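User: Thanks for the earlier help. One more: L-lactate oxidase. Can you show the sequence and predicted structure together?

Assistant: Of course, both are below.
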Amino acid sequence: MEYSEVIKNARGCIGPYCKACNVCNGVVCKNTIPGPGGKGTGDLAIRNYRKWQEVRINMDTLCEQKSVQTKAKLFGKTFDYPFFAGPVGAVKLHYGDKYEEQEYNDILVSACSKNGIAAFTGDGTDPVVMTEATKAIQNADGAGVPTVKPWDLGTIREKMELVKKSGAFAVAMDIDAAGLPFLQNLNPPAGSKSVEELKEIVKMAEIPFILKGIMTPGAAYKAKEAGVQGIVVSNHGGRVLDQCPSTAEVLPSIVEAVGDEMKIFVDGGIRSGVDLFKALALGADGALIARPFVTAVYGGAAEGVAAYIRKIGEELKDTMAMCGAFSISEIQKDMIWKY
């Protein structure tokens, strides 16, 4: 199955918000983007994608011809490629009723694991979302990263028990979800966390803790102070605050600040293996891609996920070969061009 066929299949069952576009760039859905919706005009989701396109590749084929190796080691595990399925929760609510939460997560987590990467899973106001996500990870022998919303500490403690039971090799929190309007109406409300609160959460985790939603060097330093082992440079897909810079724009300064201290991932508008190459050249250890994996599941189940992973992987390998990088460690900043 080719990914073009996956997209075509998805269009008949993924509505009403997602249109299963050929390229998921935010232009069509704007502030109605699934997830649910986005604040303001939807400007930032579009900017995320477009800024990656403004980074160009420095081609150089004056080198010895060798096979390209794309394996990457992260948190003690070796993956075929340095990219992961990003966290998406409540898919039945936001993407259509083709799949129940358990079925969707079982397909995604298992297919990612079988095809050499890992899936981050989502969380939601309905406790079932996290329960089913962690069950799927447990069914896949811990080959996934559950992502916990920034709830109050008591709720987080309950969620961490599910995480531990799943055997997951790492856990994440999308602190940028603090900007989602529906989280503000809870009692107690979910939201931002102090460094001291994060220290307590990291201690609860007992496994590598990844904090998603870092957009400044200052925030990266605070994450380091809290003891996290990895961060994701992310603005929550451009859905929580208009008029921010894109992740491509802020990634270099964050890498410069803490790149030697922790693993750095990036998401937001990365839609090809070429984009992934750019992120690695700018200093990221890996990238997350979220919504296209939903399309992959809805349009082709496990086979659709495999097709999408294969597409991104082949594009990455081709770009590496054309730039003279034959392993992930050989990808350097001088292989890209920014005007």
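User: Great, one quick takeaway?

Assistant: Residues 3-337 form a domain with the TIM Barrel fold (CATH 3.20.20.70).
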